Amino acid sequence: MKIVKTKNIGFCFGVKRAIKMVHKAAEATGGNVYTIGPIIHNPQMVDLLKEKGVIPVEDVYQVKEGTVVFRTHGIKREEEEYIKGTGLKAIDTTCPFVKRVRKYAKYLKNKGYQVVIVGDSNHPEVKSVLSYLDNDGIVLQEPTILTAKKVGVVSQTTLDKGTFVEIVKELIGGVEELRIYNTICESTQIRQDEAIELSGKVDMMLVVGGKNSSNTAKLYKVVHKVQPKTYHIETVEDLEPGWFRGVSHVGITGGASTPDLIIDTVERRVKNF
Ligand code: SF4
């Protein structure tokens, strides 16, 4: 079995930075570190961190002691303000690429544009960006005609380029002035481009990453378009021997929140098949 991995695989810059900051905080305080939602969308990594005293909580208002971590994809402005008001120690691991989305969205709003965020309205990053606009923004997940004078567009960092272009194209028809900031993060774009290229050269692709990870889901979507025999797995346990019948060349890629250890274990198991 020949196995090829994409060059950019495993943790992205933003996740590496966040994990490092959280580890440092847990070591310094001996635990008692709370993240609002999971710090990253990888259940295995979140479980490992729990052993070190890093606990995800759903509701920011539950935290009454210790250190609070703002996760990589940001929290809502009102949550951030609440934490700052309590005087609890806060660590902001929000990725600089996510802050860039907020920055452009706020700029567009201040300049009088109707802000459109292309992305998933249920994703924490989109909710966070919207909160910085006082919820005065439109979230689009599919091509939609809008009738407005001035529209300013930003994208969720983990969006796929194809979807962004399709939605922007549809907007052109209905608006007088359209201003676009492509805020898909570099890491997401590079990963998708490399995975698409590899998909055309192998018999089968494995996309490794959390089932709740937006960037892994998008990666699966773009890879599956090129290579229909593509599987999204979270861990080695999801692999099925039957998938490998007649397959001699396997490509492996992974989401930005997938630990190297999980990818290495998958690679070793595939070699055994
Ligand atoms: S995927 Fe991009 S935006 Fe998200 S944490 Fe990684 S580098 Fe930052």
What does this entry show, briefly?
With 273 residues, the chain is an alpha/beta fold.
Outline the structure in words:
There is one protein chain. The chain is an alpha/beta fold and 273 residues long. It folds into three domains: 95 residues, Cobalt-precorrin-4 Transmethylase, domain 1 (3-Layer(aba) Sandwich); 83 residues, Rossmann fold; 88 residues, 3-Layer(aba) Sandwich (Cobalt-precorrin-4 Transmethylase, domain 1), CATH 3.40.1010. It is 41% helix and 21% strand. It is built from nine helices and twelve strands. Helix 4 runs parallel beside helix 5. The radius of gyration is 20 Å and the shape is flat. The N and C termini lie close together (8 Å). The site of iron/sulfur cluster (SF4) has 15 residues, from helix 1, helix 4 and helix 7.
List keywords for this structure.
single chain, 273 residues, alpha/beta, Cobalt-precorrin-4 Transmethylase, domain 1, Rossmann fold, 3 domains, 41% helix, binds iron/sulfur cluster
